[in-house]
Design a protein that fits this description.
binds zinc ion, 14 helices, 334 residues, seven-stranded parallel β-sheet
Length: 334
């Protein structure tokens, strides 16, 4: 393992442990520096102890780089591997073992931190057969949402990657914004091209209850929408759930063949338990998605699996427990 691989793995482990603080930023910075420095220079500096003269390399990152160059697994990485694994209950493990893919994740094309290829290779390591790439749509400018032109470029890249990564499959998709009136942030023709469409509310989360209900139902009823993303929009401890009539929205999800996402991000865990139970009562489909913005976050599915087990989500209603072809069939039947 060279210094780049070691640092990448450190960043991965810190991400899966949801550590976004100073330490994680220092390692991301060190990784950039190491990528930009010729290997021969790194070796020379490791030998004469001058790695810390490089801007962005401190004592602990220098030690890690030196250990990696000398052919050892860095001690700090060994510690992280052991201490950052994502916990999973026994009941949740039944769900996790059944999952064949992940239907909501981001790459550097929008606001993710990793390339499509890095996300795919991690998904392969996690045992997945496929992933649906769902970068943001144009209206979400803070997240560099994809215009039709950029989406077309991304689709061309995916064709090439799929040839390299087979039999693993990257399915095409988007996390399309649900606009204020319930219309979607791409034309029907654009959405129709994609394998799986996640639709989410990201703006005006505090709108009045009846208005929000109509907004969500209109999106859920679109024949192109396959999954309703993080339905309440809550951020635990930071932002309340938006208000809507869950009976109406979940009945629409069931009627229009739109899965309710079980969002696995630790700060979201959306829907909350009582709403998840209501959705089960309505006979909804579900998708247990990481909503990962970095490779380490692809390991977050256990959070949603535990939640699914706790609320007794019927496993046969979980769409990403299907194989890729079955999922595509399910999505096009919508
Ligand atoms: Zn989202
Ligand atoms: Zn997302």
């Amino acid at each position: 393992m060279g210094p780049i691989a070691a640092l990448e793995r450190v960043v991965h482990c810190l991400d899966r442990a949801h550590e976004g603080g100073f330490k994680a930023k220092a390692f991301v910075r060190a990784l950039e520096v190491v990528r930009a420095t010729p290997p021969a220079e790194l070796e020379r500096r490791a030998a004469d102890g001058t790695l810390t003269d490089l801007d962005g390399i401190g004592d602990s990152t220098a030690r890690l780089i030196s250990e990696a160059i000398s052919g050892q697994v860095p001690a700090y990485l060994t510690k992280l591997e052991a201490t950052t694994t994502v916990p999973l209950t026994e009941a949740g493990a039944t769900y996790r073992e059944a999952l064949r893919g992940d239907c909501h994740l981001h790459s550097r094309w929008s606001d993710g931190g990793a390339t499509i290829e890095a996300m795919a290779r991690t998904a392969i390591e996690l045992g997945h057969d496929y992933m649906v790439l769902t970068d943001h749509s144009p209206r979400l400018t803070v997240a560099h949402g994809l215009s039709k032109e950029r989406l077309d470029q991304q689709l061309a890249d995916i064709v090439v990657l799929n040839e390299q990564l087979a039999p693993f499959r990257i399915l095409t998709g988007i996390e399309v914004d649900i606009l204020e009136d319930g219309t979607l942030d791409h034309d029907d023709a654009v959405l129709a091209e994609l394998d799986v469409v996640v639709a989410s509310v990201h703006s005006k989360l505090k709108m009045e209850r009846a208005e929000m209900t109509e907004r969500m139902v209109r999106a859920v009823a679109s024949p192109h929408v396959d999954i309703l993303g993080h339905c309440t929009g809550r951020l635990i401890g930071k932002r309340d759930q938006s208000r809507f009539d869950p009976d109406y929205v979940f009945a629409a999800c069931a009627a229009f063949h739109t899965a309710v996402e079980i969002n696995c991000r630790p700060e979201r865990l959306d829907p909350p338990r009582e709403l998840l139970r209501m959705a089960i009562g309505h006979g909804c489909w579900f998708s247990i998605d990481s909503d990962a913005h970095a490779t380490g976050q692809l390991e977050w599915q256990p959070h949603g699996c535990d939640r699914a087990a706790e609320c007794d989500v019927p496993l046969e209603r979980v769409i990403n427990a299907m194989g890729a072809d079955e999922l595509l069939g399910w999505a096009s039947a919508a």
